[in-house]
Amino acid sequence: MIKNDRFLRALRREPVDATPVWLMRQAGRYLPEYRETRRKAGSFMAMATNPELACEVTLQPLRRFDLDAAILFSDILTIPDAMGLGLSFAEGEGPRFARPVRTQGDIAKLAVPDMAGSLRYVMDAVSLIRKELDNSVPLIGFSGSPWTLACYMVEGGGSDNFARVKAMALDEPAALHRLLDVVTDAVIAYLSAQRAAGAQALQIFDTWGGMLAPHLYREFSLRYLQRIAQTLERGSGMDKAPLILFGKGNAPYLEELAASGAEGVGVDWTVSLAEARRRTGDRVALQGNLDPATLYASPDAIRGEAKWTMDSFGAGPGHIFNLGHGMSPDMNPDHVKVLVDAVHAFQR
Amino acid sequence: MIKNDRFLRALRREPVDATPVWLMRQAGRYLPEYRETRRKAGSFMAMATNPELACEVTLQPLRRFDLDAAILFSDILTIPDAMGLGLSFAEGEGPRFARPVRTQGDIAKLAVPDMAGSLRYVMDAVSLIRKELDNSVPLIGFSGSPWTLACYMVEGGGSDNFARVKAMALDEPAALHRLLDVVTDAVIAYLSAQRAAGAQALQIFDTWGGMLAPHLYREFSLRYLQRIAQTLERGSGMDKAPLILFGKGNAPYLEELAASGAEGVGVDWTVSLAEARRRTGDRVALQGNLDPATLYASPDAIRGEAKWTMDSFGAGPGHIFNLGHGMSPDMNPDHVKVLVDAVHAFQR
């Protein structure tokens, strides 16, 4: 049994003694101990592909802060990397693929990677983290969404305008759907394998779905999130590994996301939790949604905005406190402690 | 009388013979003739502050495309530059202020600039463009929104996270309101002077309002847009210079923007015009909202998405076709022609 099960209880919309809280990218460069591990590893990928180092950085924020969940330290681009695209991170820049997917021939060559082969290191990290956590808090596994992975695969890295993948959506929709189909199969296999290795909850990051016009979001992102939510085997009862769909800019689609079959929906800070809750009708747990930039303000302001967020959700169960997006390297760890403690001190 | 008054008629929600279209950043680096003028001028600011050159680049897209409005070529940061912040553009980078606004002392020193002095070059450009247009199409004047200008003034340039200005909003709200108050007075004076110099419509670009949480958007951005819409003198009847409030990420606030007193609301592509129209209830004209990345796709796809946008608005007057955000330097001018012609060919 998990000693602190607030996070899983909130996902089941059961009462909790205090609001559970974890923070997207809680393991990261804002922590000096992370930078030290990263320095020793030599590169980001050397750290991410080494289960011991991935375990170490996963646990670092939990030693400092009273967080209610751990999240696997990894990258959302492990799947395309295992598909043979050749992932690298240049210092101070974003991710790059040596072999982006640009043609129908490139797409035809894509296959679901072997979870026991090229992605074994992820499952080994999950198992090791579970062992080290020793049932103190639950462990969250994760994946990028099919659309978000497709963005990086087609663009070959980050992009300001998504020119190539959006042009593919309009000019070669059947080809893009083939790409998304195989990526969706891979995401399902990947999350299933993480669950088998010990992940107790699963989150999908749809970082770039909100960059699409509504009719294209529904066709190229939402459709595949729905397929995952409906077909991903994740157990039942207390053994169920609940699925959270997080998406930046997903506020226009909250009703559809709540009806997808997922147990939780993560939202960014551009919608109030009061509105999100009204529109999702308590069909799902809600996760979020403090603007991460709040951590640049003073402790008093952080406490005030955290209270605002929780007041906005209102009474009753089903809220997991989080930021509306990931943390940044220049954030102050002392402010993170202020935030976590403020969430726990709040009485609904 | 203006020969082509479709744009102004649509803003008054009167019937038009074809949907009017202009494109945000229609004068810009995607045009070879723009790059040539820019090269001769030596720098962006040398071009923007020279009325003859500003007039030349304003007119360039109208020589190529059948656009229904011209928009003053300028920068949204002319006001803070005239306030003494020292604007510059490093090659290949965004804008920079030599003297950003960080302290209460910095804010206390800010004053509304002299429209006949340090901003005279803008009014001279407006007058010259009006003369050169010879009443062929109307001329739009513009300003950045108070919040968007404050973002640049406090950050000292562009920002990924708006850490400083968001911290100021939470930690020193009274100081930020003083800054926004003087900037709002300056925006009103600036738009009034552009109208006096000949601008026949006025647009405010709230580029960064959508980065705020809803309670902070209402306090720090919307409040000042409302003040401008309610107090900016803009004539009456056929002489009225209508005001358009454009905001990236403004979809959550369409009802409030429609009730602000502005004649038009510009929206980005993350909301359908069907929904925008339903929520604004034909109280305002709607401007938008094709994803600019559509211009990277094929002519057939551009025509299809343009039709989708116009079908989404539906029957009846009050639609001005535009992109949901500005054009980019790597766009193909031939595709712009395809788009403009497709909009005009469409029969509602």
Greatest chain-chain interface? Answer: A-B, 36 and 37 residues
Helix and strand string of chain A, N-terminal first? HHHHEHEEHHEHHHEHEHEHEHEH
Amount of helix of chain A: 40-55%
Strand percentage of chain A lies at 5-15%
Oligomer: homodimer
Major beta-sheet overview of chain A? 7 strands, parallel
Shape summary of chain A? globular
Question: Which stretches of chain A are low in confidence, meaning pLDDT under 50 for 5 or more residues running?
Answer: none
Average pLDDT metric of chain A: 97
What integer value in Å does the Rg of chain A equal?
A: 19 Å
Look at the helices and sheets of chain A and give the structural class. Answer: alpha/beta
Number of helices of chain A: 15
Widest beta sheet: strand line-up of chain A? 1-4-5-6-7-8-9
Span of the ends, CA to CA of chain A? 26 Å
Number of strands of chain A: 9
